């Protein structure tokens, strides 16, 4: 790979998976590397579940469940129904098809394979041509700090309690000790990456866990390579998920400007929606270049168009610090 040819996209959750899909549809496969958050991973019913890897993988393979935003399309729930009859734990729903991913991933992890190797193999079997790499092979676990003083493992907060607790902060257990997955570390040491794109993922629980890994954060913060983010907040609302609720609870302005301030010093450019055009000036005053376009990705055409525009914008950016 020639110098600067690759794009490193940081993704987690539905927004990240959608833009990753757009990137995969519009770029040559060898030029795209998608690094995926694993802070949401947990062990459940004795399976190792990696929700963001699953969501990115299913979206890129075009087998994602568009109704739920997670899991596989055309899903059946016989396993869950049977488990419910035994009084088993059903708050985290594993569909019959999705279950195959967790069974196979867990088996290989227990046999000693690295998460990144397993991911590479599962993606290849699903016909995904670009690189999809977990942020780390080592464990990093997002812990949600709440106003009652209680701390919650991420999936307890997100799924079991439906994001109801008021958040005061986040912790990423294990991040200090973690290294980027080997394939990512090699890319970060080389010169193939020409730009980084932070997908419209939740900045607190999808992107922050990656940046909390020292070598990962140092690479992004080194200011050697231009970094562009796509705002997950449009018209004062999160397109999906609890980002806006979290921002409110953390006392942050729920807007693309709030996102710009959050990423200030880290990004050179921010892609914002037409609905937020009036924020162009205040964001530029932070020293961040702005691209205003339609950022809602309802279909394949909208994903591809946003992906193309974001790549072009990111490649044109100059490192500002
Ligand atoms: N999210 C839910 O809201 N409810 C579920 O029952 C659920 C099950 C599930 C199973 C496998 C998987 O890969 C993801 C699943 N998710 C579910 C989504 C997931 O937990 C979150 O969307 C992410 O962690 C946030 O990005």
Bound molecules: ligand FO1
Largest sheet strand order: 5-2-1-9-10-13-14
Question: If you compute it from the alpha carbons, what radius of gyration comes out, rounded to the nearest whole angstrom?
Answer: 19 Å
CATH topology: Rossmann fold
Mean pLDDT: 97
Oligomer: single chain
Textual characterization of the structure:
The chain is of the alpha/beta class and 321 residues long. It has a single domain, classed as CofD-like domains (Rossmann fold). It is 39% helix and 19% strand. It contains 13 helices and 14 strands. The strands form four sheets. It has a seven-stranded parallel beta sheet, sandwiched between helices. A hairpin with a 4-residue loop joins strand 6 (141-146) and strand 7. The chain is globular, with a radius of gyration of 19 Å. The model has no long low-confidence stretch (mean pLDDT 97). Ligand FO1 binds at residues 12-13, 40, 49, 51-52, 54, 70-71, 92-94, 98, 155, 158-159. Ligand FO1 is lined by residues 12-13, 40, 49, 51-52, 54, 70-71, 92-94, 98, 155, 158-159.
What are the salient characteristics of this protein?
321 residues, alpha/beta, Rossmann fold, seven-stranded parallel beta sheet, three-stranded antiparallel beta sheet, 14 strands, globular, binds ligand FO1
Itemize the secondary structure elements and their pairings.
Blueprint: E1 6-11, H1 13-26, E2 32-36, E3 42-44, E4 47-49, H2 51-60, H3 78-85, H4 96-110, H5 115-125, E5 131-134, E6 141-146, E7 151-153, H6 154-160, E8 167-173, H7 182-189, E9 193-198, H8 203-211, H9 214-221, E10 227-230, E11 233-234, E12 237-238, H10 243-249, H11 256-262, E13 269-273, H12 280-284, E14 289-293, H13 300-316
Ligand FO1 binds at residues 12-13, 40, 49, 51-52, 54, 70-71, 92-94, 98, 155, 158-159.
